[in-house]
Write a structure and sequence with these properties.
- 3 copies of one chain form a homotrimer.
- Chain A is α+β, with helices and mostly antiparallel strands.
- Chain A contains 6 helices and 17 strands.
- Chain A is globular.
- The mean pLDDT of chain A is 96.
- The interface between A and B is medium-sized, with 22 and 26 residues.
Amino acid sequence: MTAYARNQWYIVAYGREVGSSLLGRTVCEEPIVLYRTGDGRAVALADRCVHRRFPLSESRIDDNRIVCGYHGFTYGPDGACVSVPGQQRIPRTARVSSYPVVEQDSFIWVYIGDPATADPAAIPRAPQLTDPGWTTVSGMEPLAARYQLLVDNLLDLSHETYLHGGYIGTPEVAETPITTEVDDDRGVIYVSRRMADAACPPFYAKSTGIDGRITRWQDIEYQPPCLYRLHSRVAPVGEDVSGFHMEIVYGITPSTAGSTYDFWAVARDFAQDDPAVSDFLYENNRTVVLQDVAALNILERVLAAEPDGYQELSVNIDTGGLAARRLLARMSS
Amino acid sequence: MTAYARNQWYIVAYGREVGSSLLGRTVCEEPIVLYRTGDGRAVALADRCVHRRFPLSESRIDDNRIVCGYHGFTYGPDGACVSVPGQQRIPRTARVSSYPVVEQDSFIWVYIGDPATADPAAIPRAPQLTDPGWTTVSGMEPLAARYQLLVDNLLDLSHETYLHGGYIGTPEVAETPITTEVDDDRGVIYVSRRMADAACPPFYAKSTGIDGRITRWQDIEYQPPCLYRLHSRVAPVGEDVSGFHMEIVYGITPSTAGSTYDFWAVARDFAQDDPAVSDFLYENNRTVVLQDVAALNILERVLAAEPDGYQELSVNIDTGGLAARRLLARMSS
Amino acid sequence: MTAYARNQWYIVAYGREVGSSLLGRTVCEEPIVLYRTGDGRAVALADRCVHRRFPLSESRIDDNRIVCGYHGFTYGPDGACVSVPGQQRIPRTARVSSYPVVEQDSFIWVYIGDPATADPAAIPRAPQLTDPGWTTVSGMEPLAARYQLLVDNLLDLSHETYLHGGYIGTPEVAETPITTEVDDDRGVIYVSRRMADAACPPFYAKSTGIDGRITRWQDIEYQPPCLYRLHSRVAPVGEDVSGFHMEIVYGITPSTAGSTYDFWAVARDFAQDDPAVSDFLYENNRTVVLQDVAALNILERVLAAEPDGYQELSVNIDTGGLAARRLLARMSS
């Protein structure tokens, strides 16, 4: 049985994915149905009819209510059943759970756990994604692997050199040591790498127009369980400029024991109005994400076939990932 | 481990499906091979060679005998092995089980359980399916769901309104209360619904030619575990006529824990010689069955992923289904 | 849990399959990566990076070393890690297992078990496969069945009559009794069948040009667990000649509990330079192997669905197969 960090906010969808039709997602093994009421508010309910457990996401919306596609049990946006076929009386217990929902920074967040403890102020922020001074491309790729593999992957970027060569990886990434800091009280992990004089990979060369070697900053800020941000900066070597900034954001949302939603977004503070740069970054980052997905899907099949307690060997590059495991274990207990 | 009602007759095939080639089916997890001998008699044997358990249904028939496709062990219609490769002596125990078989009302029935208790007179009847005064269309769809979901489905027709709108469902089906009777001694469940003034759905309008509202009778008679009959009648509202009759028959045959044979037939006592009506009813009822199959396959995947003891909430429409569960539990213990 | 014969040599590949790119195979549930160093030597290492268990077979070779495709951990041909990303120090335990390898008779053999007990002289031989006086065709088909089913299959050739009619089977194979000898000390099983006057199946008729009935010798020599040889000879009935010889070799290599590598080769001492005969024998024997694969894949699905301790009934033709089971059980304990 997989342990999940409960009493936590998770990204369940982009706001743009939720509208007047029903969307089914599963977060931490809880099936959730999402839609938007006529006044634009996003709603998240348990995705199982109380009657015979038919998925409400296979149903239809009528006047802001979900009408179960099997026998017509009808639910309001608060989860209360308001109509039962063949009778006037509605059983007192006919109600599906409703999830706390916050729409922020382009995401729909839901709270998994005891709703009484849900505090919207605790949701970590990624303000660049909707900042008018920045331009963002984003997507979501389903991952057929446990979410911990994505956490490991993102906390150690030395893999860029080997898995993402020709996109974002160059030899300097794996060669350059990292510094790691953990803020145990706030539950944040910081991993930083500064490459003073590095080759400029196509991802940055083609989007910024830099022609030559770069100074490259990778500053990771991970707020377990869900929000990962890479504050990325590149500048031509020796030029005393603040450089080009990208805010690379991942939402790491566990779905089931062996599947994860891999939300990804790239915001930039340059060439904001250039659609060719947007297209390039969208395609390029999606390719990089799919390279990770392919590798992690392979790794999941390997690990799923292993006996429990298989061996690993950790080295310096794993410092951030091990800290993340420790925080996640604490949150999941 | 799924419990099945044993010492019971089950529909394993239509008579037309069984001929001079071998047909493999699995009933209540028992693999069965079917064929017809030269004199037209249907034979049902255990579908596993005694030697190395190769499926006899992957073999061939030679002179009314099955010759195993792997090493040639040969079986007569009674299941006795009559030839073994490489030797004259046939081991005394070389025999596969033979199932009691009755061909009746277009179906091949087999008896699952102790053959000594098999009583052909106990097989429930659906005489309209072969009555010259009636015309029948029929088929079988495999269902990737436990058979109990099909029992639930057929015992509560209020789902016609939501799942089969535009075919057999109208609002009145779900709105009209039912009456349920259980004959515990004979093991029969009756569920009835009379709609005095209802819209006429396309299934009945196009087949009968009725143009306008109807009185509609649905009288279910279910004889667990296998035979379900819906005595259906429609007549124009206010016309004092006996109306148009359809006998809608289902054979609910458990195959494995998560699969079921869904036999269906529609017999009518009108437009008997009109092939266009036959074609229409065949296509329309098959579509309705496939709508059920799609919904129940979804529900099976949901339930299979749930922990045992998931919650349901039953209401009035479930009275027949709950009675069926009770009878089936008694028969399976 | 399947038991495998350990401390044994197994065929893992043909020599021609192993080169300068990486090949992943699994033998007795041990994942192995194979490649050839610049000097032509075949190398077999455990196919899991010590760091996070990424399959090394999904990596690339650089200067005779494997560079893990995920984070760049680098391994020499002896399995020792020689480079770790982001640091100079290489942990003392950073090493993957190396398997003893012998290339012989066209095969790559690996030793599964304690390498200290690996004795190359214990590898059984099939010298015809690389003898200049013989011509060989060969291939490998993956089997989705436990290896024991292939052992059973090959030790009892009476199935040729039923499964391979029109290729290598005629009625005489199943009709003719066998003689079986077991050399317990050397661990070899011999099964022989001599058909004095038999139909000549197409496999032999078309390759040898014999037109008429034949005397046919089948002399099996099985050295568990892996090497099976059928010394096959055919000659026209009554002609006092030594006949046409074929050496039909199988490598039976367990992969996982339900999968097996089925290596097959046919060597002949006639028409050595006729490519049409080579093409014919390749296609024909591959067809025969695929007929076995299809039957055994069906049988595996049957047995996997059965409770443990299912019943079999053994007869004379099974004498060799039962002896093989006994030797394999002894080797696996």
